[in-house]
Specification:
Helices cover about 85% and strands about 0% of the residues. The protein contains 23 helices and no strands. The longest helix has about 35 residues, at about 85-120. The relative contact order is 0.11.
């Protein structure tokens, strides 16, 4: 194990870039939903959620999981100086997914009437016909994203995914909704935002990766790509279905307005993934390029687990305690019905993302794609069985229980597998300090919710109290390390001077 791992610096630098992008994307994401919930009814919003869920599920079949091979093979070829082969991977994947995604788009358009009748929502046929054009667009979008990951230049991804797309989508959606287009306005904003993002993202990638793209093309053997990608393709199918199975089950048993309310609660709870999503894109390539050095892999895994838990834990406490108030203020009081959904999902997402995330980025980086597939099957199976059992009894809370059980189960599986395979685990004294510091923060935040009667006051005061007590607890427990200092230095050298580093 090295005294100073440059990978930690890379993880921090690129993670900080993607964190800023995720914050911007998250702000616009919440703003778009706030806009939608004020201009259309929960039933119209729920119908849009159902239609886009079908699209997101079907687009996984369209790309066959091949974009995931880019950020696994390209970093290895670049590390070995084989730029022609790195270009070959990108070209072969792009050509393949363009063909398959076009075929899937035609299938969705042809079957839109049947899908609408299945959910007893006739308007879904029009929505799916219009949204089917996004299937090949999403395939190219995913190729661009993983291409950015593979060269560890995530600032380009931030521009395309976190700035251009949400800004354009928000502006276009707002214009359409103000003009009174309703559901068509939601669809128009989605399609136009995606198209503009791809156009600008492709132009930036061509410009910034010119040396890679102008290298002499060397086609690579398709077999290794397929062997790696096929399990992940099936994983993606199950994973995306898992992410949308709640909406499908709710749409089948309940009304579209329940889908809309649940979607808002799910989005608020899954906001905890912002830190994981910031580090995961660069974490997987860092693990892939050093997967034979188990000590170094464990060091990087432990650092990432601490950072994710340390930043996500106070957010979990805030959203769990103040769920009802945040839903009422950010959206409208009718969406406060999803408060238990937020509470259940917050705890489950915190556990899952700390130990490798729902997509198994650590296992992917180590090359264990088959284990990722098995885990995702378990993820979907547990979620589907529990949800379809409990939704008729408990409504949307039954769907939340299904997701929570599945996320926690897969987190446990990931921990067990990586320890069995390589003897790696994230549990250290420094990690324990992070967890214990959440106890006084929770105790201090609880009275705020019960004492203050105004939802707006709760929204303002709760983060101040919880974060303040949490930081003081970290200082009192001497929880900051040298790795934390290096991470802070990527944000500001001045910040390091104020960071209390123990012995």
């Amino acid at each position: 194990m090295t005294d100073h791992d440059e990978g930690v610096t890379t993880l921090a630098r690129q993670g900080s870039i993607t964190f800023i992008g995720n914050v911007v994307n998250g702000v616009f994401g919440f703003a778009i939903v706030m806009l939608m919930t004020r201009f259309v009814s929960p039933s119209v919003y729920g119908l849009f959620v159902l239609a886009t869920s079908v699209i997101l599920f079907m687009q996984v079949f369209a790309n066959l999981g091949l974009p995931l091979a880019i950020d696994y093979f390209v970093p290895q070829y670049l590390d070995e100086g084989e730029h022609g082969k790195a270009k070959g991977v990108i070209v072969q994947v792009t050509a393949t997914v363009l063909i398959t995604s076009s075929l899937v788009a035609l299938a969705i358009a042809a079957g839109s009437g049947f899908i609408g009748s299945l959910f007893q929502e006739p308007a879904m046929q029009i929505a799916l016909l219009l949204l089917s054009v996004t299937i090949p667009m999403l395939a190219i979008y995913n190729v661009l994203l993983t291409s950015y990951y593979s060269i560890k230049k995530l600032q380009y991804r931030v521009i395309m995914r976190d700035l251009v797309r949400p800004i354009v989508r928000f502006a276009v959606t707002a214009g359409f909704l103000i003009a009174g287009f309703g559901l068509l306005g939601l669809i128009g904003g989605y399609v136009i935002g995606l198209f503009v993002a791809i156009t600008i993202g492709a132009a930036i990638f061509v410009s910034k990766a010119w040396s890679l793209l102008t290298a002499d093309l060397e086609l690579v053997a398709p077999k290794p790509l397929v062997i790696y990608s096929v399990p992940l393709a099936m994983t993606s199918v199950v994973f995306v279905l898992m992410g949308n199975v709640d909406y499908f089950v709710l749409g089948y048993f309940l009304d579209s307005d329940d889908v809309g309310i649940y979607r808002v609660g799910y989005m608020l709870g899954s906001g905890l993934m912002i830190i994981f999503n910031s580090l995961s894109p660069v974490f997987k390539p860092l693990i892939a390029e050093t997967r034979d050095d188990i000590d170094l892999v464990e060091q990087r895994f432990r650092i990432m687990a601490r950072w994710i838990a340390g930043i996500t834990l106070p957010i979990t406490i805030i959203l769990s305690l103040g769920a009802s108030s945040y839903l009422a203020v950010l959206y409208t009081p009718q969406y406060a019905a999803a408060n238990l959904v937020v509470v259940l999902l917050c705890g489950a997402f915190l556990f899952n993302v700390t130990f490798g995330g729902p997509d198994g980025s650590l296992l992917q980086g180590m090359g264990y794609s088959r284990f990722v597939f098995v885990n995702t099957v378990v993820l979907f199976g547990a979620n589907f069985v529990v949800s379809i059992t409990l939704v008729p009894i408990f409504g949307m809370e039954g769907a939340a229980i299904g997701s929570a059980v599945a996320l926690i189960l897969v987190g446990l599986l990931t921990l067990t597998e990586i320890y069995y395979l390589d003897g790696i685990h994230p549990f250290t004294r420094d990690f324990a300090k992070i967890v214990v510091s959440g106890v006084p923060a929770s105790i201090a935040g609880a009275p705020i919710v019960y004492v203050l009667e105004s939802d707006l006051l709760v929204v303002v005061a709760l983060p101040v109290v919880v974060i303040g007590v949490y930081v003081l607890s970290l200082i009192a427990m001497d929880a900051f390390t040298e790795d934390d200092a290096r991470m802070a230095a990527e944000f500001s050298p001045t910040l390091v001077k104020w960071l209390p580093i123990g012995s």
